[in-house]
Amino acid sequence: MSKSVTCIICPLGCEIYLDERKDNYSFSGNMCSKGEDYAIREIKNPVRIITTTVFIENGENKLLPVRSKKGIHKDLILKCISLLSKVKVNAPIKCGDVVYKNIFNTGIDIIATRNIQKKKIK
What residues have CB less than 8 Å from 109, skipping those under 6 apart? Predict the structure, then answer.
């Protein structure tokens, strides 16, 4: 089976051609060995860090930026974002606080990426 992957490890953006035969791989198009590792990971288990926002109640802002603590499989990204669009948290929140624990039983937490103070009552 032959596949092609654009490497994102460095600014070169090599187009790597990967030929898989049983558990052996042959590569072409890559300028370094880092591209080989990236291509195998991208073919076997493509993951991405999710970044989005959730609603925050009683906060200085209406939205809280969040991200996944680790990469989540690409097949789950839209499901995760859809679920997180319905999440509401209460202020105050500190950067790094867990906003959603173990999303879709992946073992991966969604964390806040900003401090949000409680809204001051005037």
Answer: 68, 69, 98, 99, 100, 101, 102, 103
